[in-house]
Design goal:
Layout: H1 2-16, E1 28-32, E2 35-39, E3 49-52, E4 58-61, E5 71-73, E6 77-79, E7 89-94, E8 106-111, E9 121-125, E10 128-132, E11 141-143, E12 148-150, E13 159-164, E14 185-190, E15 206-211, E16 214-219, E17 227-230, E18 241-244, E19 253-257, E20 272-276, E21 297-299, E22 302-304, E23 316-320, E24 325-329, E25 341-346, E26 352-357, E27 370-372, E28 375-378, E29 381-382, E30 391-396, E31 399-404, E32 414-416, E33 422-425, E34 431-434, E35 437-438
Length: about 450
């Protein structure tokens, strides 16, 4: 009780300094019961008006002329327990619209330097941005047409934020953590201005956007994408696909994963290897049957061939080279790259044959045609005399070579085949006489066996 008396006395001194006297009929502040009132120079009590005290602070006289306490006044202003207008200050108060309800929700308001509660606007307070709705309530969550996001403390967020979508069902779980599988939560990027990045896709489904030197893709709502996306909407063309990591980063280089679920192409296995360029575009070639030597791709010194589904080709393949074809071997599925040197390969018809692929130079990996180490090859395949013939004439690039059943070229010699026909050859293995008569062996020559590529 003693403290209340002191406080009242102090307030009396402060307020009466603004007027000339405390007696009835004088102008200025006066005590009226438990209330303070103010009389003008005409002796009239002020109502619904602001009045300064001797301390230079504003107070408000309500409709009865009493100084208002702890209440909203004059629309968007608030006076504290001493009747002083609040300014430049945060206040947590019952929701203005329900202030007469004892159970009204408590919300934050900010009163600007002129005492008016901030409303329907952004305010920079202590170097942080806040947004207030038309009732002056500090906002949290999505705000200002869902283009900005405010934390639980009301501060505007910038940078990456993993959030529930603005239009998500209110019954959804709001506590989903990043990278969990939830259709209503996504990563969003808020620029330095606080505004959510929302691309103009220009008719495409997604748009690429570089952040801190890293490329990401966003949809028309500004949701960062993960996994497979088709950037143009043309789901039939694999080169229009991109693959995004769980953290949204655009995949480059080699990567093994499942094919896109919505891709219409004929994919052999559930998991495939893909190669993505620096722009994220997958390496894609023509169908294998239409591939040419021009479609070969060299990556880090290794040569590959990609099909129309973005997969590296494997097995024995005959590639178009203008009017003819060239044979390459891409190894098994685990290798899927051009092989070189001599090796035994199972062909597409199931037979195993010897092959030789050029080991160096601009034609490295191409099936060799001609004589190599005394053996005859055509498009890389060893050319052997049929079993039981002992020797056979094989025409390669317009020349008739005599080979035995091992494919060895018979050089500078005279031999008889199983039928008794005698062949004489030059020092390069080309037939020059048949049965002692000058003859190039055309009558006996056959075309070489061609490589049988894999299905």
């Amino acid at each position: 009780m003693k403290r209340k008396g002191i406080a009242a006395a102090v307030l009396s001194v402060v307020l009466t300094m603004a007027g000339a006297a405390v007696c009835f009929g004088a102008s200025g502040w006066q005590k009226s019961g438990n209330n303070w009132v103010y009389y003008d120079t005409n002796g009239s009590k002020l109502t619904n008006k602001w009045q300064k005290g001797a301390d230079g602070l504003w107070r408000y006289l309500d409709y009865n002329g009493n100084m208002a306490l702890n209440s909203w006044v004059d629309g968007d202003y608030y006076v504290d327990a001493n009747g002083i207008m609040v300014s430049g200050k945060w206040m947590k108060l019952p929701q203005k619209s329900d202030r007469w309800d004892n159970n009204a929700k408590q919300v934050w308001y900010y009163f600007t330097s002129d005492g008016r509660a901030a409303s329907d606007s952004w305010q920079k307070i202590s170097e942080k941005w806040y947004y207030f709705n038309s009732d002056g309530e500090m906002q949290t969550g999505w705000a200002d047409d869902d283009l900005y996001y405010l934390g639980d403390d009301g501060t505007m967020r910038t940078g990456w934020q993993y959030l529930e979508d603005p239009d998500a069902d209110d019954d959804d779980n709001d506590d989903v953590r990043p990278y969990e599988d939830d259709d209503d939560h996504h990563w969003y990027y808020f620029q330095s201005s606080g505004k959510r990045y929302v691309p103009e896709t220009g008719g495409d489904s997604y748009k690429k956007y570089k952040i801190d030197g890293v490329n990401y893709y966003f949809d028309e709502e500004g949701r960062m994408q993960t996994g497979w996306i088709c950037v143009t909407g043309d789901e039939d063309d694999f080169k229009d696909y991109r693959y995004l990591q769980d953290n949204g980063k655009l995949t480059t280089g080699w990567y093994s994963t499942y094919p896109p679920e919505d891709y219409e192409g004929d994919v052999e296995d559930e998991v495939q290897w893909y190669y993505f360029g620096n722009d994220g575009e997958p390496k894609v070639g023509p169908s294998v049957e239409n591939a040419s030597v021009k479609d070969l791709e060299k990556i880090n010194g290794i040569t590959y061939l990609f099909d129309e589904n973005g997969n590296p080709v494997y097995g024995l393949r005959n590639l178009n080279s203008g009017s003819s074809f060239e044979t390459y071997y891409f190894g098994d599925r685990q290798t899927s790259s051009v092989q070189k040197g001599r090796m035994t390969i199972e062909e597409g018809d199931g037979t195993k044959s010897e092959f030789y692929f050029t080991e160096s130079g601009g034609k490295a990996g191409r099936g060799f045609t001609g004589v190599k180490n005394n053996y005859l090859f055509y498009k890389g395949k060893l050319q052997e005399a049929d079993n039981g013939t002992k020797y056979e004439v094989i025409r390669v690039e317009g020349k008739n070579y005599l080979v035995n059943t091992s494919g060895k070229v018979m050089k500078d010699t005279t031999v008889k085949d199983s039928s008794g026909t005698k062949f004489e050859t030059s020092n390069s293995g080309i037939v020059v006489k048949v049965d002692k008569e000058s003859d190039n062996g055309d009558e006996y020559a056959r075309d070489p066996y061609e490589p049988v590529e894999w299905d």
